[in-house]
Design brief:
alpha+beta; Beta-Lactamase; six-stranded antiparallel beta sheet; two-stranded antiparallel ribbon; 8 strands
């Protein structure tokens, strides 16, 4: 499964020939060929002659079916709309991916100067308040594995012991903040959405320019973000933690 997903990742942004897939994945030519043919047979890939393999039509069907079913995104969207209206900033909902977090829904601010995170955008866990919410909920061993990979994207990106101290603060206060950690000039405040067993299943966030969301402003935004997270939990049928 890991190998098949690695191939899908390679062709995600355009068609790739067999040799390009081998180079990108590190798979042997034989294994890569076998998996390409299997994925093609199941409709997950499509062969385009000299251009190679691209994502297949079955993925579109699966994606459409997923969006039609009641989901976290459906339950959360009204809360995101209210959060954006209450704060005047853009609101986002994230879930974890294999190595980071993915934006699954977003409501843009009505302000001319605003932040924008495309739905489907994958971002790191160790930079930005929404990612740190997930890290703070992990076991020390899981968090350390991500911290070990942390890289400075800007001068404000926390790494090592600085990041560990921030995670301890997030666990204590129940929400996270960032300013210019992933992208210079962007600030955010985030809170966890918890499942039936108290696990963090999503992260809800407001983001905007640091001229409006600095670390000093976080406490002004935090109550609205925490309230939005609680609203999403209720919409999903989870009791108050």
């Amino acid at each position: 499964m890991d190998r098949a997903v690695a191939i899908l990742d390679v062709v995600e942004h355009g068609a790739r020939i067999h040799a390009a897939v081998v180079r990108a994945t590190g798979l042997s030519r034989t294994i890569a060929h076998r998996l390409l043919k299997s994925l093609e047979a199941h409709g997950l890939l499509e062969y385009e002659g000299g251009r190679g393999y691209r994502l297949g039509p079955r993925l579109l069907k699966l994606g459409a079916m997923s969006l039609q079913k009641p989901s976290l995104r459906d339950a959360a969207h009204p809360a995101l709309e209210r959060l954006a209206a209450a704060t005047g900033e853009s609101a986002q909902l994230y879930v974890t991916s294999v190595d980071g977090r993915v934006c699954v829904d977003a409501v843009e601010s009505s302000s001319e100067l605003r932040t924008f995170v495309p739905i489907g955008e994958e971002l790191p866990l160790w930079a930005g308040s929404a990612g740190k919410v997930f890290l703070a909920s992990m076991s020390p061993e899981q968090a350390d594995a991500h911290i070990a990979r942390a890289q400075e994207l800007t001068p404000a990106t926390p790494t090592g012991e600085r990041l560990r101290r921030q995670l301890a603060t997030i666990r204590r206060q129940g929400w996270a903040t960032s300013a210019g950690e992933r992208q210079v000039g962007v600030g955010s405040v985030s809170a966890p959405v918890r499942g039936a067993r108290g696990e963090t299943i999503a992260s809800v966030s407001v983001s905007g320019p640091t001229s409006r969301i600095r670390r000093a402003d976080a406490r002004r935004y935090a109550p609205a973000v925490v309230a939005a997270a609680s609203e999403i939990e209720r919409a999903l049928g989870f009791p108050a933690q």
